[in-house]
Amino acid sequence: MPSLSSEERQQLHDSLGEMLTDKYPFEHWKKLARAPGGEGFGRSEWKQYAEMGWLGIALPEEAGGSAGGMTELGIVMAAVGRFNLLEPFLATVVMGAGAIEMAGTRRQKEMLGRVASGDLLLAFCHSEPEAGYARDFVKTVARREGDGYVIDGEKGFALHATAADQLIVSARLGGETGPVALFL
Length: 184
Known about the structure:
Layout: H1 6-23, H2 26-33, H3 43-51, H4 70-82, H5 89-103, H6 106-109, H7 112-116, E1 122-125, E2 141-145, E3 148-152, E4 166-173, E5 180-183
Parallel strand pairs: 1-4, 2-4
Antiparallel strand pairs: 2-3, 4-5
């Protein structure tokens, strides 16, 4: 889908507002947030968002997405913020899927269809305890071992990491001064 027309963007905005006003009142939010042993969000809601096409709004068509742009994603994320949705939109759709789409291998990009369908939750693990607000601060190191890597370091806050099916972890290759790489 190329960029939506102004009318289509308004329809997207309106449909988000109507559905979330009806299905995500504050009482429902409290129930999800306080569910004992729960993840702090609704899995059935997540699947419904996938069915509505919201999870794939900015993903390529070959991944089951709509190939919308940042404007369409912004409309969805504005509704996420306005209704204070608990589901992992930012972690999965923006940061996780965005990292895979921009830096992933062809095989990894095939996973994006599972994001669009609501079957894969991602978390982007980049922040480190000593980083403060420096986005380029990475002390975690990945060193080659056999056919893979061993990652040594500590990550701090990572949105929805406890519910994620896959983690995307930033680390420096070979040592503390090596280039930063992402590991799935």
